[in-house]
Amino acid sequence: MVNSTGSLAKALAGTGVTANTVSPGVIHTEGVERVLREAAQRLGWGDDWEIIQRRWFEDMLSDKTVKRLGRVEEVADLVSFVASPLADYINGANLRIDGGKSPSVN
Questions:
Q1: What is the pLDDT of residues 16-55, one digit of tens each?
Q2: Nearest-CA neighbor of 101 among 39, 40, 24, 34?
Q3: 80: helix, coil or strand?
């Protein structure tokens, strides 16, 4: 997808159309919450969502930067920005929105 975005950005050069990729990390959706709650039950962490989130990041992702799940609204805000005239100069980019969890830079 990221390579295709770069190629598409070049192919659309001069048209006023930009092409970018938005790469979200773990985003708090009903499905993600269900999976984490099921894992919490197996691990004996209880039912409290705040405790489950804290334990998930302390025990499973302790070396990562932002200690929470992303929010759907944050992804929507990024997509709205990239689709707006404010982002006219952003083209061919891979915009990661993952709280710094990705180990690589691209």
A1: 999 999 999 889 999 999 999 999 999 999 999 999 988 8
A2: 24
A3: helix
| Residue 56 and residue 36 in contact, taking contact as beta carbons nearer than 8 Å | yes
Calculate Rg over the CA atoms of the chain: 17
Alpha-carbon separation of residue 28 from 9, 13, 43, 65 (angstroms): 30, 36, 20, 17
CA angle 63, 105, 90 (to 5 degrees): 130
Rounded-to-integer distance, Cα 79 and Cα 27, Å: 14
**Residue in this structure with the two tokens 């705040």, named with its chain if needed:** 50
Q: Among 59, 56, 37, which Cα is nearest to 46's? A: 37
Q: At residue 25, what is the residue type?
A: G
The residue assigned the tokens 């404010």 is 86
